[in-house]
Automatic annotation (TrEMBL):
It comes from Flavivirga rizhaonensis. This is N-acetyltransferase. One of its GO terms (molecular function) is acyltransferase activity, transferring groups other than amino-acyl groups. The lineage of its organism: Bacteria, Pseudomonadati, Bacteroidota, Flavobacteriia, Flavobacteriales. It comes from the Bacteria. Keywords: Transferase. The keyword Ligase does not apply.
């Protein structure tokens, strides 16, 4: 049985009510480095995005889900992006919004649910992610779920006047 429900969290589709939550995340300059953002997003643009969120992953090549507690608290987001049906692959991105909710296993549970869904329901062959070499928490999260480091992109991320290296991780469904 395919489920996006875990023991402590569940993954759900975006809703119009997520406007302020997404607006806060997308405009948090502290995470612009990982989202490759350089300008703020207006509520208007996010509202337009939410109005299109019902579209199928096969059409828009992306699936963004909210990580939610069973108390209906929005904890973060997890994405499949660059969905490539022909080659059976997609990128993965994850963010637990509040620092106080990190390290509690929510990201681990969300990632496991998304991996299972990607391989069993979407029929993907592989998932990949890009992680700054300084992001030890994400490196641990993804390697603990079976992702393998397959490459280093030198001076890949420019942030605050310096360049940082980024690792490429991959998980192949055998």
């Amino acid at each position: 049985m395919i489920t996006l429900k875990g023991e402590n969290i569940y993954l759900r589709a975006l809703e119009p009510e997520d406007l302020e939550f997404i607006h806060t995340i997308e405009n948090d300059e502290a995470i612009w480095e990982i989202s490759n953002t350089i300008t703020p997003y207006s509520r208007y643009l996010i509202k337009q995005y939410l109005e299109q969120a019902y579209k199928d992953i096969f059409e828009v090549k992306q699936l963004r889900l909210v990580i939610s507690s069973y108390k209906d608290e929005s904890l973060g987001m997890i994405d499949l992006f660059d969905f490539d049906f022909k080659n059976g692959r997609a990128g993965v991105g994850i963010l637990v919004k509040e620092a106080g909710n990190r390290g509690k296993g929510y990201g681990k549970e969300a990632l496991k649910l998304l991996i299972d869904y990607s391989f069993s329901h979407l029929g993907l062959h592989q998932l990949y992610c890009n992680i700054s070499e300084e992001n030890k928490a994400s490196i641990t999260l993804f390697t603990n779920q079976g992702f393998k480091k397959i490459g280093l992109k030198k001076d890949w991320i420019h942030n605050n006047g310096t360049y940082k290296n980024e690792y490429l991780f991959q998980l192949i469904n055998n």
